[in-house]
Amino acid sequence: MTTLEQDRAVTAEVADAADRPLSGLDRCDSCGAQAYVRAVLSGSELLFCAHHARKHEAKLRPMAEVWHDETHKLQA
């Protein structure tokens, strides 16, 4: 696979991550609680509960290719 093909594959993965909703099976990488935020950095996915997303957002969001936030589901 060429570098261009690799770049396109990573771009497609990032786009898929941005569109795919989180489910009750997605767990926070920090504590294991249900994940409501997905951050994609350099093609790698990190999942966070609302608490840990707020804790790390200021540092991670500027570097993230995707910051998929579904914390609005907690207010329903």
Automatic annotation (TrEMBL):
Origin superkingdom: Bacteria
Entry-linked Pfam families: DUF7455
Boundaries of every DUF7455 domain copy: 23-74
This protein's name: DUF7455 domain-containing protein
InterPro entries cross-referenced by the UniProt entry: DUF7455
